[in-house]
Amino acid sequence: MLTFGKQPAVDRNAHLTIGAFVFPGQDQIDFTGPFEVLSRIPDSTFVVLGKTLEPIRDVKGLLLTPVKTIAEAPQLDLLLVPGGLGQQQIMNDEEIIGLIQRQAASGQYVFSVCTGALLCGAAGLLRGRHATTHWAAKELLPLYGAIPTDARVVIDGNYVSSAGVTAGLDGSLEIAALLRGQEVAEEIQLEIEYAPNPIFTAVRRRQPQSQSSMPFTDSTAIIGRIAKRKQNDLRSNWASHCKCSADVCSARSRGLWCRGKLISEKTKYSAEIMAECRHQPKPTLTSQEPSMADRSRFWAFHLFEPWT
């Protein structure tokens, strides 16, 4: 864990209200992993929020059921922001972005897991802050004004970010210690028998003592297969939402994704961004720092391209 800035004052004897929102296509362990820890914090209530009360399916089909709508959300001591493939479709969702912004403005904690950090970026939380996310999306953090930080868990003021997927467990234990003290966090860790010891080298660190969130593997083939799988998922996800014909949306076949926009391979984020979908306006960006609105729209996994 790396810590920056000043954390909010916490009354460790007060009742805590913890909330998380769920959305279609999210990665359930970004939610259920932290839930396993945070729901065990003494004298706390965990509220599952959704845009409606209808059950949603995660990216692999698991059903998750909200108990309150976002409109009914109480003031939270902690808001959990999960990630996953479906995150792309809500980057411009005013209700969800507004929830994140209100929580941040309250001075209470916001906790992102994996690419939930990009949702926080779309809400404007990452400007000038240290942050982490899934290793495959870390290059996107500067788009939101963040300082990419290579650690499993990063705390900067009232914003806590964890790296990809299972790192949400690490982040949740750190938060439990912030809210209730280290002893309580240690009890939870023992109760759930959280003692990671990865079996394969593909997820081990290059240096055992390193804080790095970047996996280490000797096999570029493994990374290549993950990258190809991500690209295929992105193609399928965009194809299910894009209203363009296949011959128009050339981003489909080239694997450079940005909600229908294409980013040049060589010049990355500061490059001109070309609209390829006829139902979209045709913006051009040449500045070194795209606007926040553009950051929230121009979500891409072009970083997978060199590995495939």
Short synopsis of the structure:
The protein has 308 residues and is of the alpha/beta class. Helices cover 28% and strands 16% of the residues.
Q: Describe it for me?
A:
By secondary structure, the chain is α/β, with parallel strands linked by helices. It has two domains: 2-191, Rossmann fold (3-Layer(aba) Sandwich); 220-307, no CATH class. The chain has eight helices and 14 strands. It has helices at 28-38, 94-105, 116-122, 167-180, 182-191, 220-241, 251-254, 292-297, and strands at 2-4, 16-21, 44-50, 56-57, 63-64, 68-69, 78-81, 109-113, 130-131, 147-148, 153-156, 159-162, 261-263, 273-275. The strands form four sheets. It has an eight-stranded mixed beta sheet, with helices on both faces. A two-stranded antiparallel ribbon has the order 4-5. Helix 1 (28-38) runs parallel beside helix 4. Mean pLDDT is 78; it is low at 204-209 and 241-308.
Under CATH, the topology of the largest domain can be stated as Rossmann fold
Tell me what portion of residues adopts beta-strand conformation: 15-25%
Helical content, roughly?
A: 25-40%
Run of helices and strands: EEHEEEEEHEHEEEEHHHHEEH
Helix-strand makeup class: alpha/beta
In total, the number of strands is: 14
- What do the pLDDT scores average to? 78
Largest sheet: 8 strands, mixed
Question: CATH superfamily of the largest domain, called what?
Answer: Class I glutamine amidotransferase (GATase) domain
The Cα radius of gyration reads: 19 Å
Q: Domains counted in the coordinates: how many? A: 2
Number of helices: 8
CATH-defined architecture of the largest domain: 3-Layer(aba) Sandwich
**CATH C-level category of the largest domain:** Alpha Beta
Morphology call: globular
What are the segments in which pLDDT stays under 50 over at least 5 consecutive residues? 204-209, 241-308
Distance between the termini: 32 Å
Strand order in the largest sheet:
1-11-12-8-7-2-3-6
